[in-house]
Amino acid sequence: MNGPDGKWIGYGLGDVDPKVQDMKRFLKRKFSYAAVLDDSPLYDQAMVNVVSEMQAKYGLRVTGIMNYATQVRCGYIKTAPVKPVMFTVEGHLSDMFVGPCAYTAKELENQGVVRWQPVGYDNVALPFRNQTGVNELDRLFSDTVAFPLGTPFVMAIFSQGAIVGCRFFLEQIRPENGKHHNRLKDLRGVIAFGNPYREQNVIAPWVPDPPKAGTQGISDIRMTDTPEYWREVSRTGDLYACNTADEIGLNCTAIYKIVSESSWSGGQAGMLQRVLDLLGNPFDGFIDIAIAIIRGLGFVANMGPHGTYDLGPCIDFLRQRLTN
């Protein structure tokens, strides 16, 4: 059968072909509701009805046409085993093919362990447009032909990209009512580099210069109950991932929220609240805010802790998660 543009789209109503007869026999062996099919090479209305029911059950677009995607999904066409997929989300102003996530994925792809899928999004805008990354992950996860349900996957996420990855996980994968909760069982591992959402005191065991105890990501939204297959890779001195849980830390979070979200409110971490606190206790507040600004300026001048990592243990961890 051809589509409106004259191109072949699959077998459909009215087609007569020995392949149709073979498909009918296959469907009758596999599905009880296909027992109504005859043994002719004609693609009749009964075949349309059976294929439509099958497409609906598989979550495919219901057309009644036995196209390539439908043939693959039902198992009529046998394809090569699907490799695990590694999704990478790099940070602010990063090239999606350059960075700690990309280098980790490239090595695993070269080893034949994964198919690498970089995630493009608007990582230039200020305030951040993290939703563009969440939307792109949603699109990629919704493509059940390129990424069939049941395919093992891992993620590597960095800096702003870690915000995107964490949001996608927290909003669409982990919750039982999340759009992609059915993928949770396929998630094998996550490496989060320089994560503003890092849960307090969670850190990969191999980091040689880990953040100090009691520190956490700079965001006021953070991971909770971090899964055992999730590794936080952050180094001491990384302001985005090593924020203190005190007044100075709240001031840093307030500055982060203004830059990344253009947000002046938001509980104790909102800059509006910080200013009100300063007016109530100017000496204490001034010192806290001054230290936060000094720390911020020092961080901008020295990006080493936020972007320079030993990737060997990260590669080993993800390989082990996917091959054992």
From TrEMBL:
Q: What residue stretches are annotated with the Peptidoglycan binding-like domain?
A: 18-70
Checking InterPro entries in the record gives: AB_hydrolase_fold (IPR029058), Lysin_B_C_ter (IPR041855), Peptidoglycan-bd-like (IPR002477), PGBD-like_sf (IPR036365), PGBDSf (IPR036366)
Q: Which residues form a coiled coil?
A: none
The protein in question is named Peptidoglycan binding-like domain-containing protein
Q: Which species is this record about?
A: Mycolicibacterium mageritense
